[in-house]
Please model this.
Amino acid sequence: MAEPARALYPGTFDPPTLGHVDLIRRGVELFGGLVVAVANNNTKQPLFSAEERMDMLRGEVADLPVEIEYFRGLVVEHARDRGLSIILRGVRTVSDFEYEYQMAMTNRVLEATIETAFVMPSEAFSYLSSRLIKEVYAAGGELRRFLPQAVHDALVARLART
Model:
């Protein structure tokens, strides 16, 4: 049997949540290893720099065969440049699927050799998003159940300054 192909898991990860960590762990089980690509998204105003987000992710998945790196530009081009033929995407809701389906089909037109694998989150994280985390914090809510401890501490420290 052939060795499973590594996949690319791209995202902004601002901040990395327990849902992201769960998907990384499950992606490693599926593909044997992952390249986690932290994006610079010009349409978003990140709380953390790309380097801070990469460091937070490295701390949470140090025990796994995962590479954490920065990228800019099109995900499909980054996957091709890295020699990866699978893009891993988490899909929580029907609206997520609609958006991700459009992206996957566009990526297929741009690079037919790259497939997108959709993975449903674990039930405990099926509703979780980085945007929601920031909204909960802004409303005074408790975040510990949504974030790794180091990420929680960094988020509280960062938002306390703003």
Remarks:
- The longest strand covers residues 34-39.
- Residues 23 and 92 are 11 Å apart (CA to CA).
- The chain has six helices and five strands.
